[in-house]
Amino acid sequence: MKGQGAAGRMWRYGAGLVLLVALVVAAGYYFRVRKPVVSDFDFNDPTLVVLPLRIDEAQHDDDVVAQGLSAELIERLAAIKGLRVTGIASARRAVAEKFDSKQLQQRLGATHSLSGTLRIHAPQAYVELDLVDLASGRIVLKHTYDRAIDETSLLGQDIALDVAKSLQLLIPAMPDTARVAPDAYRTYCEARRLADDRQQRAREIELLRKLVTTAPDFARAHAALARALVGDQRPELLAPGESEELVNEGKRALQLDPNLAEAHVTLALAACRSAEWARCMQLFQRAFELNPSDTYGRMEYAYWLGAMGFVDRALREAEIMWRVDPLSASANFVRGRMLDTVDRHNEATRYLDEAVPPSSGYVYARWHNAVWRGDLDAAAKIAVEIPESDGFREAYLVVSEALIEPRLWSEALPLIRTSERATGSTDVLRLMMPDPDYAVIISGLEGMQRNVWPSYYLLLWMPEYAKLRQHPAFQEFLKRTHLIDHWRATEWPPQCHAQGEVAVCN
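-> structure tokens emitted (506 positions)
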């Protein structure tokens, strides 16, 4: 009996040890996949700029297909391990401004360029390409590719394989791509072009909804529809069922093609907006494994890292985004906003000035940057540029004056309230008031975070507004959004730590 008891104890000890090891491994996996991380990006890799495909003048109707195929090429080439691919905005600007080889090297950091023409002569599509070493001018690859018109999207696959071989890089795994009817591919390309114009959002969605009905196995169409639905989404603009629709379309895209980075980004955004923080981070990280050159996805990732309190990591992602797409207005704007968030306002000015053409939020970013730099005269001049149609102009004009002459603050609050009634959102100018109502401000910033209002919710983490994080309403915000639960399960932002049941954030 004594021997059996000892053996039993040894067995239980061994089983317990195995269980403990299993738990440690599981915990390590949990943290590895769910903690927000900074992307692994090597800036010493060869850098390829994919210049938009040209077309013969006589085939001007094919320009929309050339644009769509060019964007698809960037995504496929970005999957090659050991190759950095320049973002599409910078590539387009390089063509528009007729960059020569030296400019491509100096302004984009490119080591190679890929350029060519698209010709469509039924029943075939042809792409003639030159891959050039920019330093030497040597043509590394020169080839004409042809496919049946219903295999147009396969051209990108063919080209990516040859580029990888020519540069002696690891050839990426290429999933089978279904044939797409020529009319369906053209409609897809037309919808993607409309995505650049916010005023055309309804038309873009209309085209894509019809397309996924007529071409139900076209994975990229489902992914594009999901992105169109999620982009700049605000509840008051959503039709009933659209939130569910975008998730379903993203999932359908991944069922058809698990390697579509765009679908991962869309589902990541949906998860973040639902406070599913671990799933959101995991989906973003998978997206960048598939397409490190996705400027849009990296912008959203940076914003959400910042929203979660990981502002240093958010800045790092913004820097990567800028290095990938240095002439992109979005890349410069986001880098400027993140620099402002970490109290580097003079540096931020440089990137905000480079955000050309300016976005709708550009004037507000410049105004706040001027205030944080202490250049109140500049802020007053910028306020005049705010469009009256936005509903905020009068409030910004008066606050600009009140920052210089404090006796005017009594006139500011009524105008701030007027702007809030006109726009239906909290006016962040409340933070500038001598005695801010932090509970109202925190509630408003939470709504902006949830509804993807431009980057104002980053104000939650700025050094200038440390008192905001000391207000009891901030603790309630952390609980409602489950951020404090996520921090406890993974890790804490550098400026926060646990103190009993609450978070102390400097």
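The chain has 23 helices and eight strands.
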